[in-house]
């Protein structure tokens, strides 16, 4: 009996040592960071944290990284996965939160001034205009694409968002596609599902461009990442403008939808914002 007790005690001590080793690092205090709970944006958050030196991911982990890919956690960070739209609301309950710029702006935050750390403008995460496969070459969609691909939209983004939203349009146009018969589209309506900020605001510029050709742009605002794709898949809405290609690819794979990108418009750098912490001192 004494021998069995000794063996069990040794096992407990060994396990304790392993747990202590795995948790040890530059701080004994747990740092809580809220991150988006959707696959692609969580990976972006992890890559941002790695870029700033707060965690280290396994070799080869990229835009599909998950928490199981964390190889080193020297700051004893506890990640709390939260729906992206709710991150500004839970910020006061955690030390830090990694928030998409559209939700940060909507919550009154200025990513270029309020973020304690910010993601680079990676082209993989350009926000796209998406439609159901087979509709990408219709004249209405081509007209909408040209309006979003315009110098007017580029100027609006540059002048309005102070670096929090960055245009990725390389060769902006006058807002019109020479291959489209605009006279035949007069009186037509094209509908787009979009997040309120900045997508609906950017679409408002495109709306003016299309209105000059007597085409109505119907902007339908959504505050989640699911319904905008569902209503385009069902045909209820012609297009959407709220997501990046990695998210769309994952959504199609998970839901059996058939949506495609027709244009990358801008990038919204992901930012690390203070919650209970007002600076990055807790991560030093």
Characterize the structure shown.
With 284 residues, this protein is of the alpha/beta class. It contains 11 helices and 13 strands. The chain has helices at 2-23, 39-51, 87-90, 101-106, 111-114, 139-148, 151-160, 182-185, 196-211, 227-234, 245-255, and strands at 31-36, 56-57, 70-72, 77-82, 96-99, 117-118, 126-132, 166-167, 189-194, 216-221, 239-244, 259-267, 271-274. The protein is elongated, with a radius of gyration of 23 Å.
What percent of residues adopt helix (DSSP H or I)? 25-40%
Question: What is the makeup of the main sheet?
Answer: 6 strands, mixed
Rounded mean pLDDT is: 90
CA-CA gap between termini: 48 Å
User: Unreliable segments (pLDDT under 50, ≥5 consecutive)?
Assistant: 1-25
What structural class should be given to the helix and strand makeup?
Answer: alpha/beta
**What portion of the residues fall into strands of 2 or more residues?**
15-25%
- What is the overall number of helices? 11
- Count the strands? 13
Order of helices and strands: HEHEEEHEHHEEHHEHEHEHEHEE
